[in-house]
Amino acid sequence: MSTDAGQFNVLLRALCWIHAERMLAKLVGFNATQRNELRLIRTAVWKLYRDLKVYQTKPTPRVKSELTRRFDKICETQNSFATLNSALKRMHKNKAELLFALERPDLPLHNNLSEGDIREYVKRRKISGGTRSENGRMGWDTFASIKKACRKLKVSFCKYLNNRIRKNGAISPLPHLIEQRALSA
User: Fold this and answer.
1) What digits encode the pLDDT tens for the residues 169-183?
2) Closest by Cα among 81, 77, 111 to 92
3) 58-61: long-range contacts, CB 8 A cutoff, minimum separation 24
């Protein structure tokens, strides 16, 4: 699950609908007709998004076919707004990646969770200017990852670190906690 950035085009890729729609959200119609066309397209895209979420809970071949047809209809709509037409053409070019959930309903339609995971790290890097060495970066990455995992597992990061340093075994290693969480899900 990623944005449309080329560096993420590896193996099988699903694109984030939030990022895809952002292309439309950035457009500005210069007259009432263009603003109305943009509003209608964005409304149709978000309706399709909501219906994809419903499909994920109960996928059927008929609904899959209908959603694919609606996606094509939205993207192939010709408007008086050339920039909108260009954005829709780009969306249509990414059809397989945007509609990947039709093949894999278990996948999310957006990457907001993974982006949220790195947001704190990115903010800290911007404020501090990053690290001075590769070892510093690796240490920072490691601690950020452990902290995020602890937060998701509802384990105190400080208590976890103290437990690892003292080696008293009061808190299981993160891989075991993750495995237990997965088994109980």
Assistant:
1) 889 888 888 888 888
2) 77
3) 59/102, 59/105
Phi first, then psi, for residue 21 (nearest 5°) are -70, -25
Q: Is residue 109 a contact partner of residue 67, using CB atoms and an 8 Å limit? A: no
Angle between helices 32-57 and 61-76 (to 10 degrees): 160
**Widest distance between CA atoms in the chain:** 69
DSSP code of 132?
A: S
pLDDT 10s digits, 147-156: 888 888 899 9
Helix and strand tally (H, E) in the chain? Answer: 9, 0
The C-alpha angle 12, 13, 15, rounded to 5 degrees, equals 165
Predicted TM-score (pTM) of the model is 0.61
d(CA 161, CA 165): 6
